[in-house]
Amino acid sequence: MQAAIDAIVEPRRREILCLVRDQELAAGRIAAHFDVTRQAVSQHLRILYDAGLVSERRDGTRRIYRARPEGLAELRAFLDQFWSERLEALKSEVEAEQRRRTDDADRKQ
Amino acid sequence: MQAAIDAIVEPRRREILCLVRDQELAAGRIAAHFDVTRQAVSQHLRILYDAGLVSERRDGTRRIYRARPEGLAELRAFLDQFWSERLEALKSEVEAEQRRRTDDADRKQ
DNA sequence: CGCAAATGTCAGTATATACTATCGCAACTT
DNA sequence: AAGTTGCGATAGTATATACTGACATTTGCG
How far, in Å, are A3, A61, A93, A97, B26 from residue A45 at the CA level? Predict the structure, then answer.
């Protein structure tokens, strides 16, 4: 799971993930979107693949990637669980605080 | 926003965040939970603070921290938006693809 | 087979960062 | 005022990692 988190932290990898979220793309096509070398993108793809965030399919000499929704869903579930436990309680506290502050102020809607 | 993402990536900082999610805690109390030096924890707290994920309050010589739900909510909203846009669509595609494979042979374009 | 295209792998490098040690600062205590 | 407590800031170090360049591999074509 830490692998998936590490993977989406790198901005370049998030961009790559966005690219292959809507469409399948070959490694070369992905690399063409960036100003770094093809190898660098290849390494990013490897990391995304190991983290389960993209799938790889071979077509001749090309390797075609796309986002792997299951991987994204797992990561999302983990993060949700991470903070949702107490987030609601804390949110209530903040809202109560805000209500207290705006009590004497104008109230719209 | 990248600051918030960088902040929650580091496992130690996620632990710290968990500690101050339920309760206010002074820096020293937080540091006592870990086997690294007090200064290291202080640096983590600074990073969490700059990312807007914790709030700081002074009480005499002590600095008391706690999770900042707004910061967490913003981060969560960003991540939600990041992958929820196409997540459902991709899931449908994958399921359709799997049906196609079990149906008959592969057909490319 | 020989060559080109598309891509991954590896070694080396540069930069980021998590940590420690030392120091500095503010608030209390005596 | 002087000492103590609780912290943060900074410099230096060790490790992680994003990148490039060189090379290897697989596939397709003549």
Answer: 13, 16, 42, 46, 42
Q: Give dist(CA A19, CA A12) in Å, integer.
A: 11
- The shortest C-alpha distance from A109 to chain B (Å) reads 23
What is the arrangement of strands in the sheet containing B25-26, beginning at the earlier edge strand?
Answer: B25-26, B62-67, B54-59
Structural domain that includes position A31: 1-103
Residues 6 or more apart whose Cβ sits within 8 Å of residue B28: B38, B62
Total domains present in chain A? 1
Q: Residue B73 and residue A86: Cβ atoms within 8 Å?
A: no
Q: What is the CATH number of the domain that holds A40?
A: 1.10.10.10
Q: Residues A51, A3: contact at Cβ < 8 Å? A: yes
Quickly give A2 CA vs D3 C1' distance in Å: 46
pTM of the entire predicted model: 0.80
- Find out whether A65 and A45 touch, Cβ atoms under 8 Å: yes
**Chain B residues with CB-CB distance to A66 below 8 A:** 90
What pLDDT digit, counting tens, does each position of B49-102 carry? 999 999 999 999 999 999 998 898 888 888 777 766 655 555 555 555 555 445
Q: Which of residues 63-92 of A touch strand D (CB under 7 A)?
A: none
